Amino acid sequence: MPLRLPDKLPAIELLKHENIFVMDDTRAHTQDIRPLKIVILNLMPLKITTETDLIRLLSNTPLQLEISFMKLKSHTPKNTPIEHMMMFYRDFDTMREEKFDGMIITGAPVEQLEFEDVNYWSEMTAIFDWARTHVMSTLYICWAAQAGLYYYYGIPKYPLAKKMFGIFPQHTLDPQLPIFRGFDDVFQMPHSRHTEVHRDDILRHPDLSLIAESADSGVSIVMARGGREFFITGHLEYAPDTLDKEYRRDKDVRDDVELPRHYYLDDNPSQRPLVSWRAHANLLYANWINYYVYQETPFDINQIG
Predict the structure, then answer these.
(1) Catalytic residue list
(2) Which of 49, 245, 253, 292 is the most exposed place for a label (fewest CB within 10 A)?
(3) Is the CB of residue 233 less than 8 Å from the CB of residue 213?
(4) pLDDT at residue 26 above 70?
């Protein structure tokens, strides 16, 4: 089954060119199937790009998914047309009575601020509390992973001496988990961040399980509440050219920008990026949807709680 998306969402046409099957609301209403309801809180600056990246991965499942987009009332994005936000996004306040089978909370360009100094922190914590009673399973990505670990479990973040930037090998620590079904022992993950969480803090907490890590990039994936929460410190959702665009953008305005590691062919930025994470990215999202959302969520979505 395809994804069920709002009519006229830009990602629909973009993904059709990649031969990915998606369905708009008009056609989906003709099918008598209860789709899984997935809500995405998109905190990234280039929202249309992030929408497309996540929908590309969510499309790799035989289940029908109904995708909704949430936005913060306390923050106005600067890099996405207001018409797009008004057409496809709803404020958290208008969604708080709804329940969802799954949720994805993205990263945000605020990681060098203390959590409490982020101007929308109070709304974020309200959403964190809401997710525990209104969502079956939630993926927290990059800054959202650090924020969730801090808010729920008191795990601090630490500044890095230099940006973690590139593609890094990750090792599964519990390969029998359903989230890793079909995985190799080592998989690649893009990272782009200035802060980190420490494995010792994770291991000391009885409610957290460190399930993937890297000798180079550190903590990779943390699981909690039997898979109702996953905290992913990198960006498996990134498109092949995302790090390239970030590198070229930053090197034009700063002189301390390093080449993303293990990314370009022969480490040469004049060569194309070597895509090494896409297969495992698709597999992780498909496993999450199947084993932690579809297999666990009640048919009556109102029973989630």
Answers:
(1) 142, 235, 237
(2) 253
(3) no
(4) no
